[in-house]
Amino acid sequence: MPLIVQKFGGSSVANAEKILKAARRAIRAQQEGNQVVMVVSAMGDTTDDLLDLAAQVTDRPPAREMDMLLSTGEQVSVALMAMAIHSLGHKAVSLTGAQIGVKTDAVHRKARIKSIETARLRRLLDEGNIVIAAGFQGIDDDFNITTLGRGGSDTTAVALAAVLRADACEIYTDVDGVYTTDPRVVPEARRMNRISYDEMLELASLGAGVMHSRSIEFGKKFDTPIHVRSSFTDQPGTMIVDESERPDQPVSGAAITKDEALITVHGVPDVPGTSLEIFSRVAGKNISVDMIVQNVGELGKADISFTVPRGELPAALEAVQEAVRIVGADQVTSDDNVAKVSVVGLGMARQTGVAQTMFDALAAAGINIHMITTSEIKISVLVSRDDSQRALRTVHQVFELEKQAPVPAMATKANERAADAADVVARLQGINMEDLTIDDITLDASQARVTIQGVPDQPGIAARVFKEIAEAGIFVDMIVQSHPKSGGGQATVSFTVPREQLEKSLAVAKQIGTSLKCKGTTSSPTIAKLSVSGVGLRTHVGVAIRMFRAIADAGINVEMINTSEVRVNVVVEGNQGEKGLKQLQQAFADVLR
Ligand code: ADP
Ligand code: ASP
Ligand code: MG
């Protein structure tokens, strides 16, 4: 019998009427011949209300007790949902995370799923019940209740669909699918018919709150298509699968992270191991870091800038101060009035001038870019929070994301998917489900680096630089632009190009440098780009650390860094590439599949 998982978010179970509506939908699915597992979130704003309550009692609630408190929200919902189904004359059983056997690690409030028991679920389903599972929760080895992080019910749903090899995983919510960007911020946003796991992963972790990013890690890792749709209608929504909707387009979607904070460590000694010291301490507090930019300045000192979620700024600063006491630095500054705007698209990797188009549009709108980082499939800019919504709308417009393009048919067939199922089941055995998996470690020694120093910090500068580069037909891979030095008001822009285009790039860079009265231009003809790719690289805060450690242990200095959900790249000196590659292969031997 086909099995279907249906997840209902907070707004879809916000009151009795909505609970009954969700119940009817599940019953209908059962009557159509499916076994049905429901995953339910806390009603409406319950989780926020519980957080408020705790805050009224203390400003430092123990994480264990927070989980005890927050998990009650979902317990209320599952019980009411079971009652609703009973009242409609059907069989249903509600289960908490512990009752199902959702085992997690012991990291309260951000727990990761290790394994899920299926025996009890299967038995109840075979007895004709609709099984109602509490989302967002599990238990650790000591039976402490844990929660998976805000929005975590999505992850419960996709994980259950994976272990049960469900035929469908439906996410019912208050929008009718995944949009090109948050429709509440940009009204002209368009619903997508389909989006790839990799794009959704990036968008989710860059602020698209419609799906919990870890749920997409499950989808990708265990080959589980996810259908995001409205709980108010019967219209189909958006399929999250392994293929992009618009493979020919450079950008598929855009996202905004409003609550971002920037930390800059000024004047760090530029020797191997300093970034490791800083980032391992931040990771030690389980804080994920984004937009890492490192610039080597004068006198062998570097500035390291990166962003963290605004709520975690105090803890991150504490960690940075500890590191600075050990490695030494001139100063640590922070800015919590910033926001990150990003565009994502699988098609970006094959096109030139994408970054330039984005910078150009932002310049035309008079928006200043504080920082830039790129990866193969995304470009992120840091802007002041006041500019951020306008920036999002601007980039949405320039890439014409509102326009509906014909959607090509999927290339992979359902039967090919089924053939993979055996492999997936094998993969599920004997591992922790959310463990890191690394697919590949590579060395690219074909690029060179160009850096322009002392660039004026004004709207339009990045646009100008990359316009001239694009017009010269140069293919730019990585771009990083630093936060201007405190007081100095100048930025450093670095980018990598194919080695055979170095001469040409340098000539263009020098010309730009002169006309903008920049401080100078440097370049390195031999750089090595080392990449680790896999699933969950950013949510597993330890990946970048492992990479830094391996590289620092070999006495190799890191020149540039960029991170995405599926890949971490570091650029090191060219003659260190082979050595770095060997180090990384050793360091990740246990998780390389
Ligand atoms: P639920 O309670 O069902 O889990 P959420 O509030 O977590 O619902 O997620 C749905 C919301 O996500 C939408 O109302 C929408 O405002 C927001 N959102 C952000 N980015 C996107 C996007 N790209 N597509 C659709 N919705 C988005
Ligand atoms: N109730 C939890 C939250 O609000 C989990 C979820 O809804 O997914 O974050
Ligand atoms: Mg949600």
Summed up:
With 593 residues, the chain is α+β, with helices and mostly antiparallel strands. The chain is built from 17 helices and 26 strands. The strands form five sheets. The protein has a ten-stranded antiparallel beta sheet. It has an eight-stranded mixed beta sheet with strand order 3-6-2-1-9-11-12-10, with helices on both faces.
Structure in words:
- With 593 residues, the chain is α+β, with helices and mostly antiparallel strands.
- The chain is built from 17 helices and 26 strands.
- Strands 14-15-13-16-18-17-21-22-20-23 form a ten-stranded antiparallel sheet. An eight-stranded mixed sheet has the order 3-6-2-1-9-11-12-10, sandwiched between helices. The chain has a four-stranded antiparallel sheet with strand order 19-24-26-25.
- It binds adenosine-5'-diphosphate, aspartic acid and magnesium ion.
- Aspartic acid is lined by residues 9-10, 41-42, 47, 73, 135-136, 150-154.
Secondary structure tally, helices: 17
DSSP helix fraction: 25-40%
Report, as a whole number of angstroms, the end-to-end distance. Answer: 33 Å
Mean pLDDT: 91
Rg from C-alpha positions? 24 Å
Bound molecules: adenosine-5'-diphosphate, aspartic acid, magnesium ion
How much strand? 25-35%
Tally of extended strands?
Answer: 26
* Alpha-beta classification: alpha+beta
Question: Order of strands across the widest beta sheet?
Answer: 14-15-13-16-18-17-21-22-20-23
Taking the sheet with the most strands, its summary is: 10 strands, antiparallel
Low-confidence stretches: none
What is the molecular shape? globular
